[in-house]
Specification:
The structure is a single chain. With about 425 residues, the chain is an alpha/beta fold. It has two domains: about 180 residues, 3-Layer(aba) Sandwich (glycerate kinase, domain 1), CATH 3.40.1480.10; about 220 residues, Glycerate kinase, MOFRL-like N-terminal domain (Rossmann fold), CATH 3.40.50.10180. The strands form two sheets. It has a six-stranded parallel beta sheet, with helices on both faces. The longest helix is centred in the C-terminal third of the chain and has 18 residues. The protein is globular and about 65 Å long.
């Protein structure tokens, strides 16, 4: 019988493979245009998406595309004709700024017979940091850091980002008009809201400046006066959703978190487990979600409800970590998993994994981690106490000490987090 560790890792591999750009991009390419093909993009999967699109266009259309996409450091995929630029994530840098300026200019160069193909995935918000007029990269970096530490949900962070940007919130669509614009996206956001993925550079934005100001106030993020003044100006408002530029635009999601959860569920089913998908859009504080999931696991293990073991509880979405004071190492997945592990406290027959499908959990070098019964005691033997590491936001160090980190490097895709809890009969 397959070990819990092997099954957890196989389920994660299946979830990532289901969102492979080489498989999901080609079937969704539009028809051949009369004019040029300009490929633009941003996100952790954008380079792999560009490679898949370029290969198909060269072979099937007989056209030579041009363009530029920006991805995170370490996620570049060489293309023949599409330039690939690497930049920093999650805090933007000068490479991302320069790439965003060039992408906007390339979109503006398109004519009405041209096709602008925009390839977008999670991470694009940080990789396209083009500040609004009068703002600087330093301003964007400071606000980004504050948002990341605040505990704000991804859709809230991106509302703010849209209104401080010269390219997000539909502004790239306005630049590409009157060319035909087709956006292909890989979703990494709860609810698959296209306008939230990378802050929707080509998607009509229904939010307002007032919404952005309310979010900043709710999370007690104080703005320098010049940024506050910028938000109060009309230039901070994103293009009207009724604008003609959006009539020339269409968007298609080529991969979604739910599809990856289903791929993981099939692996569990083949291994003899009953899979139960709890949701693809679970949000909240990572430690708190871990505590709730531990309660469900205890219920199943103790009473066989809502289903009898062997059972695989599967979920996705994007939790948050609100950092109060100094922090150690660890992203939302290890924070979730350590909260879960502490709560189940080595209960027999309960194991788990939490990983980001992009291969990077927060700002660390791991995709996430896995947990096996006995790991809390193993941690104590290694000099780590789960409760202390949770309080110090140092979940990475706990799992590092017991050799439970999952290391993949960038996976070249991104459909958010995968969390799996295996419950075995004992």
């Amino acid at each position: 019988m397959m070990s819990a560790e092997a099954l957890l890792k196989n389920m994660f591999d299946a979830a990532v493979a289901a969102a492979n750009p080489a498989l999901v991009v080609p079937p969704h390419l539009p028809e051949k245009p009369q004019g040029r093909v300009i490929i633009l993009g941003a996100g952790k999967a954008s380079a792999a998406m560009a490679k898949a699109a370029e290969d198909t266009i060269l072979q099937s259309w007989g056209l030579v595309p041009s363009g530029l996409v920006v991805t995170q450091y370490g996620a570049a995929v060489p293309c023949q004709h599409i330039e690939i630029v690497e930049a920093n994530h999650p805090v933007p840098d000068a490479n991302g700024l320069a790439a965003a300026e060039r992408i906007l200019a390339l979109a503006e160069s398109a004519g009405e017979n041209d096709l602008v193909l925009f390839l977008v995935s999670g991470g694009g918000s940080s990789l396209l940091p083009l500040p609004g007029k009068g703002l600087t990269l330093d301003d964007k970096q400071a606000i980004n850091k504050a948002l990341l530490k605040s505990g704000a949900a991804i859709h809230e962070m991106n509302v703010v980002r849209k209104h401080l940007s010269a390219i997000k919130g539909g502004r790239l669509a306005a630049a590409a008009y009157p060319a035909r614009l087709v956006t292909l996206g890989i979703s990494d956001v709860p609810g698959d809201d296209f306008g939230t993925i990378a802050s929707g550079p080509t998607i009509a934005d229904p939010s307002t400046v007032a919404d952005a100001i309310d979010i900043l106030a709710r999370y007690k993020i104080n703005l320098p006066q010049h940024i506050a003044s910028f938000l109060e100006q009309n230039g901070a408002q994103t293009p009207d959703p009724a604008s003609a530029c959006f009539a020339q635009s269409e968007s298609v999601l080529v991969a979604k978190p739910q599809e990856s959860l289903e791929a993981a569920a099939e692996v569990a089913r083949q291994a003899g487990y009953t899979p139960m998908i709890l949701g693809d859009a679970i949000e909240g504080e990572a430690q708190d979600v871990g505590l709730v999931m531990a309660g469900i696991a205890k219920q199943v293990r103790t009473y066989g409800q809502p289903a009898q073991p062997p059972l695989a509880l599967i979920s996705g979405g994007e939790t948050t970590v609100s950092v109060n004071g100094p922090a150690g190492r660890g992203g939302r997945n290890t924070a979730f998993l350590l909260g879960f592990a502490h709560a189940v406290n080595d209960m027999p027959g309960v194991s788990a994994l939490a990983c980001d499908t992009d291969g990077i959990d927060g700002t660390q070098d791991n995709a996430g981690a896995f947990y096996l019964p006995g790991d809390i005691a193993l941690g104590r033997q290694a000099g780590r106490r789960a409760i202390n590491d949770l309080a110090a936001f140092d979940s990475y160090s706990f799992f590092e000490a017991i050799n439970r980190l999952v290391m993949t490097g960038p996976t070249l895709t991104n459909v958010n987090d995968l969390r799996v809890i295996l419950i075995d009969p004992v």
